[in-house]
């Protein structure tokens, strides 16, 4: 795509729109989280600000702004300010490579991609920015000069880097199927219902677990575990600096939902695309695709909340054990299995249904393998416990 | 596809927008909120108990080991990206190459596990 | 071209700040920023995969390790007071010698006449082409790298594993 000044202006407007959507979704996620919490716990939930409490996020924002911008006396002042800013910055930058929709015809033959940047490294951009998310928490926690903050920050950093490994490994199997790092190419390979979830059920489960851990959401919210660490890394924070940490979490939820939709659920693909193109034209069809992606992302945000009010949190050793000894070997198995899914049908000229079959056959193989491993390892543990 | 550095230009817009949002919010919240200081309030919050010693004590060496292992595994995973992208053209040869690479990775992983480095219960 | 000058100036300033800032945490953060600027240079060279790797490995992994190490050390107790005149003199001599060597080396560099158009391909730095070369022509070094990682893992465990009865906090 030629980068003319028209396209550049359109890109600038597009970036603004995506910002507005992300911030709006993040703000209203706080409202819906409380609504869902109330529903799951049989309460009423927020109902004072406006009809059905619909203005609650606005009220919260005003409250956050009017609170004292407090900095503890013996903290490192600039690092204390920098921490939440870094968190927010990394959260806002991730969405650049996500293809929110197909091309839009702007007239005069100018085609415009509904995507910030379509670059060769694509998904590695997301991976890179996510790996920087550690700094916001680590710097903020260290600068507070509070024991609980430091512990929370160190915990968060260890957790994030541990789950990053399994996340990186689970993306690899997607890349093997698509043959490109570009997010646009990954989505285009999944058009007309060939969604990656059919071929990568194990990879998706790995990815969503890692997404939970990367966003510090329950059951992985040990960095801010209030029963042990007061508020974790944001114990000393107040006003909009605290707001940034909380807000960044909700933005990360939305963006990781969009990433999951892009990688595993066909991105902006939706059923009956051809019919819509024939009756309403391509622009309308692609705008519906934009809506479809947002809808999928919002569904994942709902899953995040659903899990939060369903599962209790892990203990720290359980969390690290799951990340290292659980997810990494499974992810490596998944890479090898994906290799077989691709190579075997090509070798014997089988249809795509056969590869889906092989992909699903991976789940029982994995379960049996894990069962055998645990019966061996578990037996050993029991023996040593008895010997003591 | 023909990728060029100019593909990255829109990212400057995004960086600018993100920075503008962050700076404006920070300035606004600093300017709007009240400022009331007191000795007890400026202290660190540790549930009302008086704080003893420096918060920045050395931390467990386990975290450090996790970080060092993370660096090693991360580089190995990065090596797998160009392989995964070319997987279909490399075919069975590439598959076997990666089996060798991953078995060495797995050997190191099992060594780390056997040494009990990742054992958090002790 | 103006962008290149801007980026280079930013890189040099942040690299200098790494050395000049008193607080080690500030140094680490400036170093992260320096890596970002270097990634910007990679983008200008159209080496996009290297740019991503630079961010993920250096800024995302190694610098986190550095931060951990700095947080592990007790900054106040371990502050070095050993800056006697002798060490300052030794530092100046070593630094000056390195500077002279660099200047002498750069004077000898032949920059040539620019890119050879017969072999020039702007897409060389893309991950597809990189993988083709790495996994066909340089297969043995690649497999040896995995042995290097294995050795590094063993070394890290030997250094870091705590023995029974040692204080842990």
Automatic annotation (TrEMBL), chain A:
**Reaction catalysed by this chain?**
a quinone + NADH + 5 H(+)(in) = a quinol + NAD(+) + 4 H(+)(out)
The record describes the protein's role as: NDH-1 shuttles electrons from NADH, via FMN and iron-sulfur (Fe-S) centers, to quinones in the respiratory chain. The immediate electron acceptor for the enzyme in this species is believed to be ubiquinone. Couples the redox reaction to proton translocation (for every two electrons transferred, four hydrogen ions are translocated across the cytoplasmic membrane), and thus conserves the redox energy in a proton gradient. This subunit may bind ubiquinone.
Identify the PANTHER family for this entry: NADH DEHYDROGENASE SUBUNIT 1, NADH-UBIQUINONE OXIDOREDUCTASE CHAIN 1
What's the main place this protein lives? membrane
Chain ranges passing through the membrane: 12-31, 78-101, 121-144, 165-187, 193-213, 244-267, 287-307, 319-344, 350-373
Molecular function, one GO term: NADH dehydrogenase (quinone) (non-electrogenic) activity
- Which organism is the protein's source? Flectobacillus longus
**What's its membrane topology?**
Multi-pass membrane protein
Q: State the protein's name.
A: NADH-quinone oxidoreductase subunit H
Give the keywords, sorted. Answer: Cell membrane, Membrane, NAD, Oxidoreductase, Quinone, Translocase, Transmembrane, Transmembrane helix, Ubiquinone
Annotated EC: 7.1.1.-
Q: Does the keyword Ion transport apply?
A: no
Q: Which HAMAP family match?
A: NDH1_NuoH
Tell me the subunit arrangement: NDH-1 is composed of 14 different subunits. Subunits NuoA, H, J, K, L, M, N constitute the membrane sector of the complex.
Q: Which Pfam families match?
A: NADHdh
Family of this protein: Belongs to the complex I subunit 1 family.
Compartment(s) of residence: Cell membrane; Membrane
UniProt superkingdom: Bacteria
TrEMBL record, chain C:
The Enzyme Commission number assigned here is 7.1.1.-
Zinc as a keyword of this entry, yes or no, is no
Q: Keywords on this record?
A: Cell membrane, Membrane, NAD, Quinone, Transmembrane, Transmembrane helix
Q: Can you tell which superkingdom this protein's organism belongs to?
A: Bacteria
Report the top EC class in one word. Answer: translocase
Gene3D superfamilies linked to this entry: NADH-ubiquinone/plastoquinone oxidoreductase chain 6, subunit NuoJ (1.20.120.1200)
InterPro entries linked to this entry: NADH_UbQ/plastoQ_OxRdtase_su6 (IPR001457), Nuo/plastoQ_OxRdtase_6_NuoJ (IPR042106)
Q: Which intervals of the chain form a coiled coil?
A: none
Membrane topology of this protein: Multi-pass membrane protein
What's the catalysed reaction? a quinone + NADH + 5 H(+)(in) = a quinol + NAD(+) + 4 H(+)(out)
Subcellular location, record wording: Cell membrane
Q: Which parts of the chain span the membrane according to its record? A: 6-21, 28-45, 51-73, 85-105, 138-159
This molecule's function is given as: NDH-1 shuttles electrons from NADH, via FMN and iron-sulfur (Fe-S) centers, to quinones in the respiratory chain. Couples the redox reaction to proton translocation (for every two electrons transferred, four hydrogen ions are translocated across the cytoplasmic membrane), and thus conserves the redox energy in a proton gradient.
Q: Which family does it belong to?
A: Belongs to the complex I subunit 6 family.
Report what the protein is called: NADH-quinone oxidoreductase subunit J
Organism listed in the record: Flectobacillus longus
């Amino acid at each position: 795509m030629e980068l003319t000044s028209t396209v550049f202006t359109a890109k600038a407007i597009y970036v603004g729109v995506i910002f507005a959507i992300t911030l709006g979704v993040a703000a209203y996620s706080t409202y819906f989280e409380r609504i869902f919490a109330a529903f799951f716990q049989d309460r009423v939930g927020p109902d004072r600000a406006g009809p059905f409490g619909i203005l609650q996020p606005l009220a919260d924002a005003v409250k956050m702004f009017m609170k004292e911008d407090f900095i503890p006396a013996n903290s490192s002042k600039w690092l204390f300010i920098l921490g939440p800013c870094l968190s927010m910055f990394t959260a806002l930058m991730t969405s650049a490579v996500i293809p929110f929709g197909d091309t839009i015809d702007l007239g005069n033959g100018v085609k415009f991609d509904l995507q910030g940047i379509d670059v060769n490294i694509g998904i590695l951009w997301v991976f890179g920015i996510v790996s920087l998310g550690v700094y916001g928490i680590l710097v903020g926690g260290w600068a507070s000069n509070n024991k609980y903050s430091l512990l929370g920050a160190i915990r968060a950093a260890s957790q994030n880097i541990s789950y990053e490994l399994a996340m990186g490994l689970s993306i690899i199997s997607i890349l093997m199927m698509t043959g490109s790092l570009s997010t646009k190419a990954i989505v285009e390979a999944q058009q007309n219902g060939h969604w990656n979830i059919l071929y990568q059920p194990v990879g998706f489960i790995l990815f969503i677990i890692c997404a939970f851990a990367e966003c510090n959401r329950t059951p992985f919210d040990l960095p801010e575990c209030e029963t042990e660490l007061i508020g974790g890394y944001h114990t000393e924070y107040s006003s909009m600096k605290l707001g940034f940490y909380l807000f960044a979490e909700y933005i990360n939820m939305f963006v990781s939902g969009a990433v999951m939709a892009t990688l595993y659920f066909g991105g902006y693909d939706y059923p009956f695309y051809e019919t819509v193109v024939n009756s309403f034209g391509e622009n309308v069809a692609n705008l519906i695709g934009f809506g479809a992606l947002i809808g999928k992302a919002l569904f994942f945000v709902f899953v995040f909340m659903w899990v939060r009010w369903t599962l209790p949190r892990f203990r720290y050793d359980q969390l690290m054990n799951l990340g290292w000894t659980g997810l990494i070997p499974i992810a490596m198995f998944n890479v090898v299995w994906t290799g077989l899914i691709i190579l075997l049908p090509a070798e014997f000229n089988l249809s795509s249904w056969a590869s889906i079959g092989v992909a699903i056959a991976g789940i029982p193989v994995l379960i049996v393998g894990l069962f055998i491993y645990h019966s061996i390892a578990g037996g050993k543990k029991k023996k040593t416990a008895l010997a003591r | 596809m023909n990728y060029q550095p100019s593909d990255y230009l829109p990212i400057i817009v995004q960086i600018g927008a993100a920075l503008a949002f962050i700076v404006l919010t920070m300035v606004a919240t600093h300017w709007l909120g009240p400022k009331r200081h007191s000795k007890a309030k400026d202290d660190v919050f540790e549930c009302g108990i008086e704080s003893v010693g420096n918060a920045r004590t050395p931390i467990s060496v386990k975290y450090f080991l996790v970080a060092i292992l993370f660096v090693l595994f991360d580089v190995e995973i990065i090596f797998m990206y160009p392989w995964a992208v070319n997987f279909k053209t490399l075919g069975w040869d590439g598959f076997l190459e990666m089996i060798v690479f991953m078995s060495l990775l797995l050997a190191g992983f099992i060594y780390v596990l056997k040494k009990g480095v990742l054992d958090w219960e002790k | 071209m103006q962008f290149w000058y801007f980026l280079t100036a930013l890189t040099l300033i942040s690299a200098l700040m790494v050395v000049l800032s008193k607080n080690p945490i500030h140094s680490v953060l400036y170093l992260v920023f320096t890596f970002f600027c270097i990634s910007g240079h990679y983008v200008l060279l159209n080496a996009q995969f290297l740019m991503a790797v630079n961010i993920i490995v250096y800024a995302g992994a190694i610098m986190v390790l550095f931060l951990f190490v700095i947080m592990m050390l007790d900054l106040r107790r371990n502050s070095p007071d050993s800056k006697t005149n002798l060490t300052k003199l030794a530092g100046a001599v070593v630094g000056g010698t390195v500077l002279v060597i660099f200047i002498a080396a750069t004077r000898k560099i032949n920059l040539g006449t620019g890119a050879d158009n017969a072999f020039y391909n702007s897409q060389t730095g893309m991950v597809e082409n990189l993988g083709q070369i790495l996994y066909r022509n340089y297969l043995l070094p690649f497999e040896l790298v995995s042995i290097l990682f294995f050795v590094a893992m063993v070394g890290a465990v030997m250094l870091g594993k705590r023995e029974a009865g040692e204080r842990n906090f």
